Amino acid sequence: MDVIKHDVLIVGGGLAGLRAAIAAAVEGVSVGLVSKVYPMRSHTVSAEGGAAAVVRTDTGDSLQLHFEDTIKGSDFLADQNVAEYFVQEAANELIQMEHWGCPWSREPDGSVAVRAFGGMSVHRTMFASDKSGFHMLHAIFQTSLKYDKIVRYDENFVTSLLVDDGRCQGVVAMDQRSGEFRLFTAKATILATGGCGRLWAFTTNGFINTGDGHGLAYRAGAPLSDMEFPQYHPTGLPGTGILITEAARGEGGYLVNKNGDRFLSDYIPSRMELGPRDIISRAEITEMEAGRGVPGRYGDTVMLDLRHLGDELINRKLPFVRELAERYIGIDPVHNPIPVRPVVHYMMGGVRTDIDGQSPLPGLFACGEAAQEGLNGANRLGSNSLTECLVFGARTGRVAARLAAQTPEASAAAIEALGADEEARIAARFGEATGDERVGQIRSDLQLTMERLVGVYRTGDSLKQAAEELRTLKERFTRVRVDDHTRVFNMELQAALEVDFMLEIAETVVAPSILREESRGSQARRDFTDRDDEKFLVHSLAYRTENGPQIEWQPVILTTESLTALPPAERKY
Amino acid sequence: MTESTIKLAVTRYRPGQDREPTVQTYTVPYHDDWVVLDALQYVKDNIDGTLSFRWSCHMGVCGSCGMMVDGTPKLTCAAFLRESYPREVRVEPLANFPVVRDLIVDIDDFMHKLSEVKPYIIREDLDSLPLGLGHELRQTPAELEDFKQFGMCINCMLCYSACPVYAMEPKFLGPAAIALAHRYNMDSRDQGRNQRMPVIGSSEGIWECTFVGECSVVCPKHVDPAAAIQRTKLATTNDWFKSMLMPWGNR
Amino acid sequence: MHAPLAPGYRPALSNGWWLSNRRYFLYMVRELTAVFAALWAIIFVTQLPQITAGAYSNPASLVSSPLWFAFSLVSLAFVLYHAWTAFNATGTLIYLRMGPKPIAGGSLNAAMFIAWALATFVIAFVFVTPAIGG
Q1: How many CB atoms lie within 10 A of CB A475?
Q2: In this model, does residue B251 exceed pLDDT 60?
């Protein structure tokens, strides 16, 4: 088996992975970037609205304000030292992106423009029309091409982490082009694999967002944290789940029910459409349950009305919203309201790391959506996540590079043995699989289970039912059949490996949801409707055992260094 | 009521097994809001797990799912079955690229050419510019308009697939790579044009293009690579005249 | 970077590719019309000495033959078509921005057609008409 050596190995080529790669390359170490897709296909590309930072002060903005919005948005579950570092570094990173060519939208004087976003008390979201993620990803990917220290391994699927001597020493990956397994050894390994929205049926996430990084870390013994908090975005297109950006409301769009009422006045009158996502998604579900939804082909929706914004503003600031609505549901938002409903969008939870991106497993780091470094708590504010990828991608890349420079090489023999074992495991598991279950069918059933039982509102019973169904699905998966036994681009084998991860990760979502007997941020329990800081001002940690996840709890960090900490209080807008 | 169906005629090619591609026909449910990609996914999940293709975002921005649909290069996430129904839909791998397997083509050639054109901001002071609040390089909305269209490229490769010049001369840099070079040349923050010109202006660069113009027709993002190439030709010609007329000029 | 590449299949471009859609066909027509324009110009230039010596009034000369007349007529039609395609590409070729908005491609195309009409008028009435004594 080929062995490829790097100082720092990064899994995932989206915004966080590329930012980490450049940061590590600048430190002078050799960087390997392994991704199951070409970097510009990564899901960062689908982000629309923008990235938040204090880049203007004429709006009345300050670091303290961005910090407080973030903490309050998180329903006080964010680690405050992490949020502090985040707001301090945010502007540096976004301006760095500007110097790297990102085509940010501008004011007439040439300075960068900012727009309103949910949960942000002033205009502070930088944007590149409504394709911010696309432009940021292409700008940073193209910039990464000038660093000789970065070697890319595109379309390589990582199947497991190499853990030897209590450290993560790299990964085993399958090169899709040849079907060959290869060993990538590294002194520091960074997971930047994004989220796992594909656990649900109705999601804004691309087909690739199967949470491979979560699965890799979990199996290697690192804990997944705060997985009970998936974010429901209030405005997904029915049917496909395609995202209609929050910027549509930031620019002044209204949410109305079937009577044409702006129903948010009953829920969050001070912020209306610019409230945080968890609150608005719950309001939408409540409206539908009260019979004030608009019936449609794919069930009830509410309506996003942009008509009063006018042709010119929509074309200039929301052209992609118009394109998507016209193409996928045949509605021109200039003339008609867009039907929307809550849709799974983002994972607040992920691989538990400290502020440096370091996980409890030595040698293993994580950043971006794959990580739970403490920024987002129980609810992320819109437009904080692109910035999060940059701020923590950069820091993790730097720290990993410095660690790598002081770490001796691993024992080659032990590593090669681990690689051989992994290839044998996959061959034994899927090579001759002759069962009666299809990969696609199990994935689909998993997604429907999560959709039905682990939604915006949950109860202890629905969650226990979900846990039960997951056990059945795992049992069915032991009988899965892979028809494709060729090597080149065996996408069925890759899909089977992904679903194998997904079934385990789904358990790490459900288990802490059951135990967290409170409502906080995106976890809304009908049987425990209040927040309970006495018991649950803590992060959940899910560790893998043979009998499913074992949950531990870890206190939230409530202290800061220079900004003023925000003690937990009732979350009122 | 019986469910309506539609036939998909899909190109199959398994390296080492097939000497050349064959066509396999699948019958899938017909829905008027399904795109070709939905139908392919249905096949993979329910009929034949061995069919391989790339896809990710399902919203026309990641650039993964370009294929020939009824003979025309398209993003399969934006090509609706209703455009063909009730006729069968023919799905083939993107033309002009080596087929690796089934509907998957090899785009490494483009990835290499993309790096060749230095698609990033080049300026001497880049690494010493201060960061943070107030330190953006100023760029007016009008200056942004000068290049923004050419930065909309999603690298989906439809333009290469539509380009007969690329089909006949695979060394041709091609539409997307040149459009992206032009995007940086036109960016008011960039000073790297002279470093890009040796590649762009080479015999395998802009001068290969005979302005068929089909690249701009098939581009799903209205990038207009044909315009980028013709404008670069004009600018290069101007440079040449200037250097002839004013050889002392410091260009 | 990949492990050694699996052998791929590279389909060849078919000879009839330019018939597969209307735009490819029109492109080929555009290219072909240039050949006629060039051919006509080359023949005309080689005949210039005879023309200045009065070949138009000599029925035996090439330029007085019906064949040349017919060829010239076809070439004229092709040149007009070629010029039309070229002028229509002006907006694609030239990017001009004065102030905040670039000049629309259509306006640039129109400007070319106007300039063409003016040039034709000037040549016809300022140079050619006096020369043939009209």
Answers
A1: 10
A2: no
